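Hey, resending since the last one bounced:
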Amino acid sequence: MQPGPGQESVWDYPRPPRVEPSGERVVVRLGGVILVDTRDALRVLETSHPPAYYLPRSAFRAGALMPAAGSSVCEYKGLAAYLDVQSGGKVARRAAWTYPSPLPGYEALADHVSLYPAAMDACEVDGEAVVPQEGGFYGGWITSRVVGPFKGASGTLGW
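The structure tokens again:
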């Protein structure tokens, strides 16, 4: 897809991925409660993926993040730990992840948490509702700012 004015193509994003400050207002709701409201998010941009937003751990409501079972490895960012997210009486299991000791080049992700938008009641970027990246493994945030096609849907694993 060709990007229009003010849009980015995920096919112009680099590999290995780039981390950049966003400056956009990011609001996340879970259990009918605002879980996060911050302008201090980071975006991770990687070829073929919508941006993953990493939010400062300090921006979350107290007690919202709890360690969960399991881990995964990113060849660039390192070992990810998963988190359950609770807010407003609702618990989203393994709905977030963090890199406690990111690999060199990704140190900015320390003390930041990314969320699967599909597991939240709502995620917004500058007032726009986020569409979750298809598939369930990747946690990209799709807004009108980015165009694909996006990795994650059925048949795209080998991209």
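The domain at 8-147 is CATH 2.170.150.40 (Metal Binding Protein, Guanine Nucleotide Exchange Factor; Chain A).

Sorry for the duplicate.
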